[in-house]
Design a protein that fits this description.
Layout: H1 3-15, E1 19-22, H2 39-44, E2 52-55, E3 60-64, H3 69-76, E4 82-85, H4 94-101, E5 107-109, H5 117-127, E6 133-135, H6 140-144, E7 157-158, H7 161-164, H8 168-181, E8 186-189, H9 192-199, E9 201-202, E10 214-218, E11 223-227, H10 234-242, E12 245-249, H11 253-258, E13 265-268, H12 275-280, E14 286-289, H13 293-299, H14 303-330, H15 338-350, E15 355-358, E16 363-366, E17 390-395, E18 397-399, E19 402-403, E20 406-411, H16 417-434, E21 437-439, H17 444-456, E22 467-469, E23 478-483, E24 501-504, E25 507-510, E26 514-517, E27 520-530, E28 533-540, H18 558-575, H19 581-590
Parallel strand pairs: 1-5, 3-4, 5-6, 8-13, 11-12, 13-14
Antiparallel strand pairs: 1-2, 2-3, 7-9, 8-10, 10-11, 15-18, 16-17, 17-20, 18-19, 21-28, 22-23, 24-27, 25-26, 27-28
Helix pairs in contact: 14-15, 16-17
Length: about 600
């Protein structure tokens, strides 16, 4: 059993806590968190980006989704922590686990700043029958985590209008109008990507996520931005002040909420506002619950952002072609490993003008490692690449022109007939969704079947969504648009709108053997108007050849072959002029029609 788990239980006993809850979150509900907030990883040893740890004196469980079943099972072995596979039949929920193990009138401890109000309220309701109370000011991380990494706010910088396409004044006016339309007159914003988008600011407080720790409070009289003073350069402070935005220190948000007048009607997003913030709001304040207006507004990219994203994807495609050309000619001749290949890919991206940083930690998995959906190579697991089988690389970049996300499964040598058939099926899945035309009003869950059908017809599937929204020089995972048939009712998707960018990334994974995933970013665009209404379509933003060495054309329809050839013609047209002679010749061969 891990010593960290034992120390947590000692701290729980001292505080009189019958259970303790540790989600994977910071104070803003961020998907990816800085090292300071990785308490769940510290206690459990599980390093995935999603999971909730619950500890009682006698038992401990970790809940995570299908992306991490294999990884979590490996990392939790021997820790004294049981794995609970979310979304699978007969899996006990967190509240059921607590209800069975906590005494009547017991106390559940948590740091309420890291728990969404939505989750906190759900636990309140589900555990009320046992009269369990929630102690939401119990930050045990500071007590037991030796050498806890500190919060180190990084400088904030302004995104130029030539990239953003709209000024912060214009965005604020739109959000205020949406707030009024909801029946509120004030709005608390805690999502870091929402705030960064709204104020045309970017930061570096979370690795691979260009955001900064902050809160925003909009009232009828003023706009206030709460952030660490040391993160705000004088030039940016002056810009904000000139736009009438008040600047307050990060911790003052609690006092600001306590001082709200009773006439305030406050719009809150329960999934983003943390439990402690919600408990701070005075009871006379009227609460209006609904999604942050900025979430949908930022999901629909404006014409300037779309033009920039196309340029970012051209640059990213050029880097990817150089990488693929290098990889194909190097494996089997010189030593290459998962980590060294990922590092080489980053080098090619850094050669591109305007590249800032990766948009997430590169997933580079060879052979069995590719079957771990969110595998992350370490010096201990780093596998050498051999001239056979598949190598899966899921990666992306932040450029001044926007964010990219791409996955390619690359043939390094001979394949079995099974692998070739599985690869062709995944490719068909990806092409079927990319080639969709659909009436306005469709949501992602309506289209997901297009991607899954080729796999479902063979009794196969994959344990992750087919696609997620992509931010504009922001979080690589962005809602509310996504492709997933099993949408969480508490996280509804939205009607697809022209300007939304969503990934298309079906896959197939055989545990302990191999994994396949092919991913492009798709832009939703207007299609024809017919007697049946307005239609929309999906246009590829990602520009990079798909490895046809693994394709069995006999398994594809004429339409699927045509879609692939059309895509490769576009890749050649857009990238050939950006490449040196050797890579251009390689690209010409890689994009020839099948």
């Amino acid at each position: 059993m891990k010593k960290e788990l034992l120390r947590l239980r000692e701290a729980m006993e001292k505080r009189g806590l019958d259970a303790y809850l540790i989600p994977t979150a910071d104070f803003h509900g961020s998907e990816y968190v800085s090292e300071h907030f990785q308490f769940r990883k510290y206690v459990s040893g599980f390093s995935g980006s999603a999971g909730t740890l619950v500890v009682t004196p006698e038992a401990a469980g970790l809940w995570t989704d299908g992306r991490y079943f294999l990884q979590a099972g490996q990392q939790l072995a021997g820790t004294g922590i049981d794995l609970y596979r979310m979304g699978t039949p007969n899996t006990e929920s967190i509240h059921e686990f607590l209800g069975r193990r906590m005494p009547e009138g017991g106390c559940l401890g948590m740091d309420g700043r890291t728990v969404s109000f939505q989750m906190g309220r759900h636990l309140e309701n589900m555990l009320e029958y046992k009269k369990i109370t929630l102690a939401y000011e119990e930050d045990l991380a500071d007590e037991i985590w030796e050498d806890r990494p500190p919060v180190l706010p990084q400088p904030v910088w302004s995104l130029p209008l030539s990239s953003a396409g709209e000024s912060r004044k214009e965005k604020l006016a739109k959000v205020r109008q949406k707030v009024q339309d909801s029946g509120a007159n004030s709005h608390l914003i805690t999502g870091l990507d929402d705030i960064a988008w709204l104020f045309n600011l970017r930061g570096n407080d979370i690795p691979c996520n260009p955001v900064f720790f902050s809160y925003c409070l909009l009232t009828p009289e003023k706009t206030e931005l709460f952030l660490y003073p040391q993160a705000l350069p004088e030039e940016v402070r002056r810009e904000l002040t000139e736009d009438g935005i008040g600047i307050r220190s990060y911790e003052e948000i609690y006092r600001a909420l306590e001082e709200l007048p009773s006439s305030c009607r406050l719009l809150l997003d329960n999934s983003r506002v943390n439990y402690r913030l919600k408990k701070t709001i005075p009871k006379p304040i009227h609460r209006v619950f609904g999604p942050n207006p900025s979430t949908l507004l930022k999901a629909v990219k404006n014409p300037t952002e779309i033009a920039c994203l196309k340029e970012a994807n051209r640059k990213d495609g050029a880097a990817m072609v150089k990488f693929l050309c290098w990889l194909k000619e190097t494996v089997g001749k010189e030593p290459v490993t998962e980590l060294s290949a990922a590092a080489r890919l980053e080098e090619f991206r850094r050669e591109q003008e305007g590249f800032l940083e990766p948009s997430f930690d590169t997933i580079a998995g060879y052979g069995p490692h590719a079957s771990v959906i969110h595998y992350k190579a370490t010096p201990e697991s780093d596998s050498p690449l051999e001239p056979e089988g598949f190598f899966l690389v899921d990666s992306g970049g932040h450029y001044l022109e926007g964010t990219t996300d791409i996955t390619r499964t690359i043939v390094l040598g001979p394949l079995t007939d099974e692998k070739r058939a599985r690869y062709t099926t995944v490719l068909r899945s990806m092409l079927n969704l990319a080639g969709a035309q659909f009436p306005y009003g469709c949501r992602g869950e309506h289209l997901d079947v297009l991607a899954r059908r080729p796999l479902w017809e063979q009794g196969l599937d994959y344990r992750h969504g087919t696609g997620h929204g992509v931010g504009f020089l922001l979080n690589v995972h962005e809602g509310p648009n996504r492709f997933a048939y099993n949408t969480d009712p508490e996280r509804p998707s939205c009607v697809l709108e022209p300007g939304m960018v969503t990934t298309d990334e079906p896959g197939y994974y055989e545990d302990g053997a191999f994994g396949i995933r092919i991913e492009n970013d798709l832009l939703c665009v207007s299609g024809p108007e017919t007697a049946y209404g307005r239609f929309l379509a999906l246009e590829p933003l990602t520009l990079c050849p798909i490895d046809t060495e693994a394709v069995d054309p006999s398994l594809m329809s004429r339409r699927e072959i045509s879609l692939l050839n059309q895509y490769h013609a576009l890749v050649w047209e857009q990238l050939s002029g950006l490449l040196p002679e050797k890579e251009r010749a390689w690209l010409q061969e890689a994009t020839r029609p099948i």
